Amino acid sequence: MAGRIPKPIITSSIPIIERFDPIPAKDNEPIYLDLAEVEALKLIELEKLSFEEAGMRMKVSRNTVWRLIENAREKLARAIIEGRGIVILKEETITNQQQA
């Protein structure tokens, strides 16, 4: 196996919404967003933190936050332009609540 095992990314909350579907619905494969990508979007786009501040909150490097943001933006743009649904994958990270 190449590379190292990814370390868990800390999130502040789990989104209530699990899925967004376009109207009219199309028969396309949905776009999957990791919970870490959603958390990075929240911290950077909504809370207006710097990449370094977001990295400290998520316990990852600012480069990791940058990669998460780039992936999430591309996925969201693809979903909007191609009329695809968005599914948020929740089970791949550890939340603050689980660590307490």
How would you sum up this structure, described in words?
This protein has 100 residues and is of the alpha/beta class. The protein has one domain: Arc Repressor Mutant, subunit A (Orthogonal Bundle), CATH 1.10.10. 45% of the residues lie in helices and 14% in strands. The termini are far apart.
* Measured distance between first and last alpha carbons: 32 Å
In terms of per-residue confidence, which ranges show pLDDT below 50 for 5 or more consecutive residues?
92-100
SS strand fraction: 5-15%
Beta strands, count: 5
Which structural class is indicated by helix and strand composition? alpha/beta
* CATH topology-level fold name: Arc Repressor Mutant, subunit A
Shape: globular
Q: Quickly give the CATH architecture.
A: Orthogonal Bundle
The top level CATH class name: Mainly Alpha
- Main sheet overview: 3 strands, mixed
| Sheet with the most strands: spatial strand order | 2-4-3
Mean pLDDT: 86
Oligomer: single chain
Q: How many domains would you count in the coordinates? A: 1
Share in helix: 40-55%
Secondary-structure element order, N to C: EEEHHHEEH
**Rg over C-alpha atoms, rounded to the nearest angstrom:** 14 Å
How many helices does DSSP assign?
4
Topology at a glance:
Elements: E1 10-11, E2 19-20, E3 31-34, H1 35-46, H2 51-58, H3 62-82, E4 86-89, E5 94-95, H4 96-99
Parallel strand pairs: 1-5, 3-4
Antiparallel strand pairs: 2-4
Summarize the structure.
By secondary structure, the protein is an alpha/beta fold. The protein has helices spanning 35-46, 51-58, 62-82, 96-99, and strands at residues 10-11, 19-20, 31-34, 86-89, 94-95.
